[in-house]
């Protein structure tokens, strides 16, 4: 029998000491200032224009937009928009924006004359949007006959297939977002506006016809309510309740 070696020690595993006792963990290496990512002045300028929704640059039109949207000085903005139009700088945009500012200042008549006088300087693609601005200006100025004439002209263009520059859809803005609308949706909108104009003249029969044509293209609660008003003026509200369940 082998003698037992009392000096033998059983094998074992030792737990390494915690790192916090041996010192703090090494921090991440510092990036030299020369290698850090910097935002260039041009990029800062772009961010500024995006945040304030103004175009970049220093042209007459850009200066007018900055005064309109950043300085909040509509009267001065109108003068600068005129300068942009006279300089030939984005005449269509300057004309439309100036008309909107004039409308806000209750200068709709002046805006109407400006568009009529200078729209020939604008490209063909912008004529439809200028017509839309004119419709709103006619409404603000109380020129119902001119509003009806403009809306009927828009319907005629749709019937002839030349609305939307010959396309079936177009990009528009709704609640600050870009959306695609169809010719049918636009026709329904124009018919609704035309019906409203006839309502202002007291021509409820014609207004009823246009509202029904608009609703046949696209359901709309607002048009249904206005149609109910037409029928109420003609003492036919009960029939309206049955047909549309308002």
UniProtKB/TrEMBL annotation:
Keywords: Coiled coil, Nucleus, Repeat, TPR repeat. It is found in: Nucleus. One of its GO terms (cellular component) is nucleus. SUPFAM superfamilies: TPR-like (SSF48452). Pfam families: TPR_1 (PF00515). Residues 91-161 form a coiled coil. TPR repeats lie at residues 188-221. Residues 1-29 are annotated as: Disordered. InterPro entries: MS5/SDI1, TPR-like_helical_dom_sf, TPR_rpt. Its main location: nucleus. Belongs to the MS5 protein family. This is Uncharacterized protein.
């Amino acid at each position: 029998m082998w003698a037992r070696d009392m000096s033998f020690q059983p094998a074992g595993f030792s737990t390494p000491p915690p790192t916090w006792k041996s010192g703090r963990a090494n921090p991440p290496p510092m990036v030299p200032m020369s290698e850090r990512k910097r935002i260039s002045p041009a990029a800062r300028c772009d961010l500024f224009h995006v945040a304030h929704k103004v175009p970049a640059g220093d042209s007459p039109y850009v200066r007018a937009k900055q005064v309109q949207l950043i300085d909040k000085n509509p009267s001065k903005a109108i003068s600068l928009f005129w300068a942009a139009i006279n300089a030939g700088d984005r005449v269509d945009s300057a004309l439309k924006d100036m008309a909107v500012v004039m409308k806000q200042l209750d200068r709709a008549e002046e805006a109407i004359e400006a568009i009529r006088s200078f729209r020939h300087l604008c490209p063909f693609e912008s004529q439809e949007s200028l017509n839309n601005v004119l419709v709103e200006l006619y409404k603000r100025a109380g020129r119902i006959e001119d509003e009806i004439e403009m809306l009927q002209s828009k319907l005629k263009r749709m019937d002839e297939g030349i609305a939307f520059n010959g396309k079936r859809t177009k990009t528009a803005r709704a609640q600050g977002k870009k959306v695609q609308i169809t010719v049918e949706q636009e026709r329904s909108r124009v018919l609704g506006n035309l019906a409203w104009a006839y309502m202002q003249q007291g021509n409820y029969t014609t207004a009823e016809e246009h509202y029904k044509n608009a609703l046949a293209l696209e359901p709309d609660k607002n048009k249904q309510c206005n149609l109910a008003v037409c029928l109420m003026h003609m003492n036919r509200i009960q029939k309206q309740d049955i047909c549309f369940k308002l």
